[in-house]
Amino acid sequence: MDHDANALKLADLGSTRAFDIPVETFTHEAETLWYRTPETLFGSRHYSTLVDVWFVDSIFTKMVNQQTFSPEDSEIDELFKIFRVLGTPNQNTWTGMTSLPDFKSVFPKWSPEDLSTDIPNLESACIDLLSRMQHLDPNRRGMRAMH
């Protein structure tokens, strides 16, 4: 049995850098456009390893759905693509969002889609994990909320 068949291997570490806590200011253009997190798309220059959680989720979702990445033309197109699936955030779902440099209050309002419909044939535990990895608010993203 090939143990690497179900392994996720991350590469393309050309823009990696070491960082200490507290995190220093970084560029908001660190990731390829279609992997960027909502906070970096909103111009945040302060972020943590939770951007990697978003990155892994993006890859996993595409693999499960057997889809290729379709890069958007701009950061706003990428944000709208995210909001169409996860819903447009507001102050209740993402505290502090309005203070990000590129936030605009005039975004269209989309409701979140049901992940179990978007990604059929996944066990509920996988859907739960993906929903935690896809959280728009970086302070609520990832494994932190898991028991």
TrEMBL record:
Enzyme class: transferase
Database matches in InterPro entries: CDK, Kinase-like_dom_sf, Prot_kinase_dom
Catalytic activity: L-seryl-[protein] + ATP = O-phospho-L-seryl-[protein] + ADP + H(+); L-threonyl-[protein] + ATP = O-phospho-L-threonyl-[protein] + ADP + H(+)
Keywords: ATP-binding, Cell cycle, Cell division, Kinase, Mitosis, Nucleotide-binding, Phosphoprotein, Serine/threonine-protein kinase, Transferase
UniProt cross-references to PROSITE patterns, sorted A to Z: PROTEIN_KINASE_DOM (PS50011)
GO cellular component, one term: nucleus
SUPFAM superfamilies tied to this protein: Protein kinase-like (PK-like)
Protein's recorded name: cyclin-dependent kinase
UniProt source species: Vitis rotundifolia (Muscadine grape)
